[in-house]
Task: structure prediction
Amino acid sequence: MKKVWLAYNGIAVLILAGLITLDYVVNIVIDGSGIDTIYTELAIYFCGFNILIAMPIWLIVLLVNRSRMNWKSVVAGIVLFLIFLGMTAYPVVTVIGYMAY
Result:
């Protein structure tokens, strides 16, 4: 259980980092004049799914299976999730900037 918890949060951070990098490369490095929002949209959808659907399910599963988890794994997973939340600010601010553009 703890390996799946850590793997899920680690993979979520990596996927979001990849989408942010692709958005940055496509819109700033390759062509600064045009706007391609596909990666930003994917990042927003992924963040919404992870925060609104997947995380509450994980919290319920973790509460039911307390005996299988130790505190180090719980804290490590929560730290990864907080990193994910911090990274979520980039797509949100980017979309607000695209709307102003």
Remarks:
- The chain has a mean pLDDT of 85.
- The helical segments are 2-30, 38-64, 71-100.
- Residues 41 and 91 are 8 Å apart (CA to CA).
